[in-house]
Design brief:
N-(1-d-carboxylethyl)-l-norvaline Dehydrogenase, domain 2; seven-stranded mixed beta sheet; 2 domains; alpha/beta; Rossmann fold
Length: about 350
């Protein structure tokens, strides 16, 4: 093998594939591996063709393709899969090599893995990656924590691929020791749960309270996104409201099943709030709202027995929309304040010395 890779990545699902395309576009050579090795071949002959990638068909081949100290990022499902992959990789690595978990792992698991890797001399990093598929490709927010000695080695790559704010400041900075990076990502997601619930409740009040149609609500969200409520979630809410279902001719939001799933980070955030004695009611209630939405058949049956109030709104329409805007803004501030209060408590409890200013940029 002639080329030597700057970093390796395991897991070519959409997030992993987009992330290595981002890394390569910044001038780095990337080695890639996937448990189903045919995915490697498909990628190398497709989106990765003619670019600085090294396709590998085994973990040994991946490890041997990397410059030292080796840097390997795992983009696989959180939980047992990470432990199994880590157990397979550690015997192949040398002291000073770096293993990075880029998934949504539970922070306590990351602390445990840091300790296990440290016993072999390998540096372990738990890095929360935020921004979804689009962010992975064009610039995510990255929250790395764990073995501090790894930071100088991975910093040039992570800060090159991260999203940038004013003055080209990257949305990526070292968080702290142990599982602190994944803890910050967990709370980040918890705050986002609260934000999404606010969007849902604003939609409900406009739809059911004011009797507004989807087109009218889309215009409200578009207007909101041009002011202090400007955010990715408000932007995509306005966008999705403009989509029409080709089969029914109705707005997509009117035909989507009204049940919400969850991957666990909001639940973890709520549980840790209870463990640390920190009140985060907005985040917790957003999790409970998802739980209620998931029991659709029970909600339908209950709705037939207990009908809520009906009737047109009697007040001034524009005044209501203005007050709703302000209420959403105030509630967003509360959600963020609750999240940062939880970060402060965890930092004190775990001696992490978290930097709120740095975290706010992520």
């Amino acid at each position: 093998m002639n080329k030597v890779a700057d970093i390796g990545l395991i897991g070519l699902a959409v997030m992993g594939e987009n992330l290595i395309l981002n890394i390569e576009s910044r001038g780095f050579t990337v080695a890639c591996f996937n448990r189903s090795v045919e995915k490697v071949d498909v990628f190398m002959s497709g989106r990765g063709k003619g670019r600085n990638f090294i396709g590998c068909h085994s973990l040994e081949e991946l490890v041997n393709s990397l410059a030292t100290p080796r840097k390997i990022m795992m983009m696989v499902r959180a939980g047992k899969a990470i432990d199994e992959l880590m157990n397979s990789l550690l015997p192949l690595l040398q002291p000073g090599d770096i293993l990075i978990d880029g998934g949504n792992s539970y922070y306590a698991d990351t602390t445990r893995r840091c300790q296990a890797a440290s016993a072999t001399g390998v540096l372990f990093v738990g890095a929360g990656v935020s921004g979804g598929e689009e962010g992975a490709l064009n610039g995510p927010s990255i929250m790395p924590g764990g073995s501090a000695a790894a930071w100088p080695e991975i910093k040039p790559i992570f800060q090159a691929i991260a999203a940038k704010v004013a003055d080209n400041i990257p949305c990526c900075e070292w968080i702290g020791p142990e599982g602190s990076g994944h803890f910050v990502k967990m709370v980040h997601n918890g705050i986002e749960y609260g934000d999404m619930q606010l969007v849902s409740e604003a939609y409900h009040l406009m739809s059911q309270g004011l009797g507004m149609n989807t087109g009218a609500m889309q215009q409200v969200f578009k207007t909101w996104n041009q002011g202090i409520l400007d955010s990715y979630l408000i932007e995509i809410t306005a966008d999705i409201m403009g989509k029409i279902d080709p089969d029914t001719g109705h707005p997509v939001v009117d035909v989507i099943l009204d049940t919400a799933g969850q991957k666990g980070t909001g639940k973890w955030t709520s549980q840790v709030g209870l463990d640390l004695g920190v009140a985060i009611p907005q985040i917790a209630e957003a999790v409970f709202a998802r739980c209620i939405s998931a029991i659709k058949s029970e909600r339908v049956n209950a709705g037939e027995q207990l009908r809520g109030p009906r009737g047109g709104f009697k007040g001034e329409h524009d005044t209501f929309i203005s007050q709703l805007h302000d209420a959403v803004y105030a509630a967003k501030i509360c959600s963020y304040a609750q999240g940062f209060q939880l970060l402060r408590a965890a930092s004190h409890d775990n001696n992490w010395d978290l930097k709120p200013g740095d975290i706010a940029l992520m």
